[in-house]
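Continuing the series of single-chain predictions for the mutant panel. This is the parent chain; the variants come on the following pages.
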Amino acid sequence: MGKMSSDHAPIRSNSADAATADGNDRFSNHQTRSAALPPANTLRVRVVGFWRRFLAGLVDLVLVVPVLALSFYIVNSITDLSIIGNGGLRPEALLELVLRGGPGFYSVVVLTILILWLYDFFFIALRGSTPGLQLIKARIIDTSGAPPHWARAALRASAWLLSVFLLFLGLLWVAFDREKRGLHDRLAGTYVILPPID
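Parent structure:
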């Protein structure tokens, strides 16, 4: 395979899951340099960098927060946790819930994890992209260049949660990875790519 820049990754396009990306160049996204031509069965793609993915993540967060708030409201009504008062969500009540622990705290944690996982899983499995990624015209592919199937989408959603639980280090990995892949991309065998330049 030929070498690649940090914003391009060659992907084999002929066999289902045997493909890998290759390359050792370390230069900026805007530099170009001649390299040996990749084999005919290699597809070159434009991968999405850290800041664009960060922006997409903020959009997804804005969309999922109302769902989380509604879920907290329902849990609050059923369990009388006092998370939500007359003036809306009470941050001090959330802090008290974290410090106190107990069934109420664990129900909120499990509900949050479930909602985030379902959001990521369903959008990736059904659309190959979350709304935030769609906004920047990005999509997710596997190492063969195909949209992720259900099992891979489930694995990626789970790996994304692991990346978050590791103090977001799995997400920050994108900024330093030569293929712009986070821990969740590596574990699930996926890339986040942009449309090809015409």
